[in-house]
Amino acid sequence: GAKVMLIGTAEGGELKKPTEKIVFEEDLTPEEKAKLLKEKKVEMLPPGMKNLGNTCYMNSCVQCLSSIPDLRTALESYDAPAAQGRDQDTVLTSQFKTVAQMLKGTTEAITPLPFVVALRERFPRFAEMQNGGYMQQDADECMRG
């Protein structure tokens, strides 16, 4: 005398296949994820920057500066001169532009090694060594250059 209840869909009301392919967030590359979040106008946290030997001071400065809309716009329109006409300031600016683009185009931490090299060449005090590692620096010193 047991009753069994079946749960389902009546004929004619079957589920339909999705019109768009379902994509899961974990299947996206960091670049695809950043692009999708921008298209959907989702506020996302800025990606991090890897520490390359006491570079947290520089990472902080770069992240702050790259969040300034007018500076981002100026960097986007910046065209570096030909290779033979480049001085250290030009190389540093070009590398900063690249880092700003990398930060804008991903959700993962980036490795700004070419920028660090350019910074240390332009401002040798950031390349000073002590006890086998780069000396500790401050964000204030980095901003003043």
Our estimate of the beta-strand percent is under 5%
Count of beta strands: 2
CA-atom Rg in angstroms: 24 Å
The overall pLDDT average reads: 88
Largest sheet composition: 2 strands, antiparallel
- The unreliable regions are none
Percent helix, as a range, is: 40-55%
Structure classification: mainly alpha
Q: How would you spell out the order of helices and strands?
A: HHHHHEEH
Q: With helices defined by DSSP (H or I, 4 residues minimum), what is the helix count?
A: 6
3D architecture notes:
The protein has helices at residues 30-39, 56-65, 69-76, 88-104, 113-122, 139-144; strands at 129-130, 133-134. Helices cover 42% and strands 3% of the residues. The termini are far apart. It is mainly alpha-helical. Strands 1-2 form a two-stranded antiparallel ribbon. It has six helices and two strands.
Q: Which secondary structure elements does this structure contain, and how are they paired or packed?
A:
Layout: H1 30-39, H2 56-65, H3 69-76, H4 88-104, H5 113-122, E1 129-130, E2 133-134, H6 139-144
Antiparallel strand pairs: 1-2
Helix pairs in contact: 4-5
Question: Keywords, please?
Answer:
42% helix, two-stranded antiparallel sheet, 145 residues, mainly alpha, elongated
Compact description:
This protein is 42% helix and 3% strand. It has 145 residues and is mainly α. A hairpin with a 2-residue loop joins strand 1 and strand 2 (133-134).
